Amino acid sequence: xxxxxxxxxxxxxxxxxxxxxxxxxxxxxxxxxxxxxxxxxxxxxxxxxxxxxxxxxxxxxxxxxxxxxxxxxxxxxxxxxxxxxxxxxxxxxxxxxxxxxxxxxxxxxxxxxxxxxxxxxxxxxxxxxxxxxxxxxxxxxxxxxxxxxxxxxxxxxxxxxxxxxxxxxxxxxx
Length: 174
Known about the structure:
Layout lengths: L2 E5 L1 H18 L6 E6 L2 H17 L5 E4 L28 E9 L3 H13 L4 E9 L11 E5 L7 E5 L1 H4 L3 E5 L1
Parallel strand pairs: 2-3, 2-4, 4-5, 5-6
Antiparallel strand pairs: 1-8, 7-8
Helix pairs in contact: 1-2
């Protein structure tokens, strides 16, 4: 099994900073913005983006975590499943930024949109991803992309974050 480092810690830091600035710029500030990270590693990336935005803007952006397990169309729902979702703020009339580590087919994002719409009616939803590897099965396009990484369907992209894995890096595995 071959693996290659695509992003190291410094590259990831630069990408997170760039995405943060793009979010501020595209939304003309941070009024009415909230950030929702998808489990698992989208949560850590969302927290990093929110922290960077807070440093730049001088005020905090609400951050939540979304578990899409019960909204997926490829996972059997378990009766006793306990969701890890934590969204301690109202999303109605907010600009919701969904954050995920990798976008591939688009099915996870569709599930996230369903889960968010189940909670209320945002003003708009935008999508930020660390890596876009292509191969979409649904007409979903990220608004903020850290790195476009064309892959074959056989390759895997693995994101590591320090909070969960002890290291910040992105690998491609053949």
